[in-house]
Amino acid sequence: MKRLLPAGQASEDQAAEDAELVDRFRAGDMRAFDMLLQRYENRVFNFTLRMLGDYQNSREVTQDIFLRAFRYLGNYRGDGKFSTWLFTIASSTCKNALAYYRIREKYKQHTAQDPEQTTEFDPVAVLPDITNAPERKLEQNAMSELLTQAIKDLPETYRKVIVLKDVNDFSYEEIAEIAGVPIGTVKSRIARARLLLREKLTQLGCLEPGR
Predict the structure, then answer these.
(1) CA dist., res. 154 & res. 135, Å (int)
(2) Fold of 138-211
(3) How far apart are CA 60 and CA 63, in angstroms?
(4) Most Cβ neighbours (<10 Å): which of 21, 96, 118, 203?
(5) Could you write out the three-class secondary structure of the chain?
(6) How far apart are CA 61 and CA 4, in angstroms?
(7) Top CATH class, 12-134
(8) What are the extents of the domains in the chain?
């Protein structure tokens, strides 16, 4: 019978395995990065999906995150967990993507109002190629879709911490490192995010008032 390890011990064991894979990659073993990719791809995608709220964009940005990780893994000093380092990249990349999408949307609105606009701008050209991206495996049920939308509607600062905590199960300390804010700020943002989510889901009829 397989012995179950405490959550903390399992986390430490995974961190040690990650560190070993990083060392192997630095030594020239490209398969080690493939193993890291397989280990974290779904977690990073789920984080990205809840940050961006769009499946296609999330696939593109997830690919970009791992391209950045591959490029900069040589600079990873190992002071913290690999997972924390990776999600710091994911957080930063999502923030940049959100800013980019806002600019793109404003440009579309501007050109729609001004047909004589001659400035050339191809937003798709700067996005990574996802021709070989895997197809969506599971359809979300109605409750999951409502929850995803409710998370998407949160302000970015609240959305980031609630996804890192309740979806990806990072500790307060790890979230503080990823977000670059004090632990107290992380805790207050998570509490506020949960309150906002509860209010939103209650309005949608997913929760009974007072729950």
Answers:
(1) 27
(2) Arc Repressor Mutant, subunit A (1.10.10)
(3) 5
(4) 21
(5) CCCCCCHHHHHHHHHHHHHHHHHHHHCCCHHHHHHHHHHHHHHHHHHHHHHHCCHHHHHHHHHHHHHHHHHHHHHCCCCCCHHHHHHHHHHHHHHHHHHHHHHHHHHHHHHHHCCCCCCCCCHHHHCCCCCCCCCCCCCCCHHHHHHHHHHHCCCHHHHHHHHHHHHCCCCHHHHHHHHCCCHHHHHHHHHHHHHHHHHHHHHCCCCCCCC
(6) 35
(7) mainly alpha
(8) 12-134, 138-211
**What 3-state class would DSSP assign to 155?**
coil
Place of tokens 């937003």: 123
The reported pTM is 0.70
Helix (H, G, I), strand (E, B) or coil at 154: coil
Name residue, tokens 């961006």: 52
* pLDDT digits 0-9 by tens, 7-31: 455 578 888 999 999 999 999 999 9
Q: Higher pLDDT residue, 150 or 40? A: 40
